[in-house]
Protein 1
Amino acid sequence: MELISFYSIVGFILASYSVMSNDSVQTLGTFIASNSLKFKWYTLASCVSIVLCLTLGYGWIINGGDITFGRLNAIPFQEVQWYHAMAPAILLLLTRIGIPVSTTFLVLSAFASTFVLEKMLVKSIIGYGMAAVLAYALWIVISKCINEKFDHPTHPKSWRIAQWLTTGFLWYTWVSHDMANIAVFLPRELPIEMLIGVMAVCTILLFYIFYHKGGRIQKIVLSKTGTRYVRSATIIDFIYAFVLLYFKQYNDIPMSTTWVFVGLLCGRELAIATMNKEYKLGYVFPIIGKDFLKMIAGLLVSVAIVITIHYILIPNGL
């Protein structure tokens, strides 16, 4: 078993908590919001943890010990220094105050070159735009068929089953993307003991998150129209999973799933406001504008980290 440094362990633990408490809630937020009154929190956490472990195990087997599904091919393993571990610490601080920043930019920027960071940014911008346009177009059609301000589907049990299946698929696509933000602190080929350790840490954190019903980031999900409803949550998760799957197959450059998620909610809110005369655009723009500004703030922090590491710390041997 390859030994890892103290800073690798610290960085991994901080990244695990910050990534799980930030990005995973953006993936599981609608699932938590629409099921928290129907099921015990530990039942929901157990189901999600099973999918997580199966996904990690599947990736580990088919990729020769690599649990990131090739997301770190452009970022080779390097000895972890104290400044690498500071990136998830900053992310943890931002998460505690409820800012939906991109974990991909904040964590991977400490390891990636400016060239790779540029590719990550371009891919994330395309993902944001694609999710927003797709969501807007689809919800224009959906709004003509259902009113998402009310939760009265004709087949509630069928929608509940569909949501659980869709959430499982979405969770698989998310783990395939964002596990890179955690595993970047670890060797690219994990021994079985380390794989089990990663599964254990992530599972414990998931139970903690579900116990607290998503934490502060969950407020972003709950602020959007109808996200507590099973039918609305199912549709959101399905489109989110589709977009992530497309970019997963597109290339192995990491991207911000946060930007895709916020773009999806942005397009959806604009479509609902367009079709519902009682839902004013003046109410929508402050909501989506606030989320966008928070994403830009996170990006600026990421750029500052890259500049500090590559142009100040490394040249000076710090």
Protein 2
Amino acid sequence: MLQQTQVNTAEPYFHRFIERFPTVDELASSSLDEVLKMWSGLGYYARARNIHRSAQLIIRQHKGEIPSDYDSLLNLPGIGKSTAGAILSLSGIEPKPILDGNVKRVLSRFFGVKGWSGESKVSKELWDLSAKSTPTDNFQIYTQAIMDLGATICLSRNPNCSICPIQRKCYAYQNHLVDEIPSKKPKKKKRTESKYFLMIVFDGNKLFLEKRKSKGIWGGLWSMPEIKLSDDPKEWCAQQFANKILSVDSWEPFKHSFSHYNLYIHPIEIRMDGQFMNKMDKPRTDSFNLEQLSSLGMSAPIKELVDQLY
């Protein structure tokens, strides 16, 4: 959960997740829909698919025990060098370097590493420094400490250098470069997309949803049909369903930002008569009442629309 997400955001999700899936076996035996439901709103849903798949592999290939060797951890979906290193180091099993966002910032400032950490040359230098800095004794304390140092003191904005325990040897602090190191990621203008999101309601209370493909944005989640603004929502419905349209209502558009583009969502509420009658053979579609909707994995903007609709 802490991949790409801050602690204060992930913490409530973590507690709910652990309560629902207290063991690897419980997680592995649950459906992906259940896992995605518990992840709804946290974003970066590939992480949820990866942790579910990893749990199944741990049951099948490692007799239900999380592997304690580096290479086996790296073979699990969603676990890279830093995550594997954190698991082994924080568990007190083996000293391994880590390089999450907080650690990158601490090492960059302390050793005076200039440049953006996403550049291969800079990344290699930081990995080398992380490996050299990790002690062979008390390595679990060190690993937790350097993560906490970056999370609580060596902040990206307004760092608390006055109380930092390593300020006397910090290159950035001693050279008044704290605001310049590490270098920020070069800005890239985000592309934009605009789409109709069709909120199709049958028989007064059943919402039509589609299950998205496992890969891509909101992979594996239930969502509303999306069509281009150049397409006609009424015509689209006529092609898909045998039902009669009762009403069409346009809602206020809003923006949802992804890491690489901005999506402008134009919600269209469409009421149709009778029970859901699909003209097309699409097994990944269905209509759901309010009680059923509460058990589905949905992205934050879709859940927000559903809450407004009901």
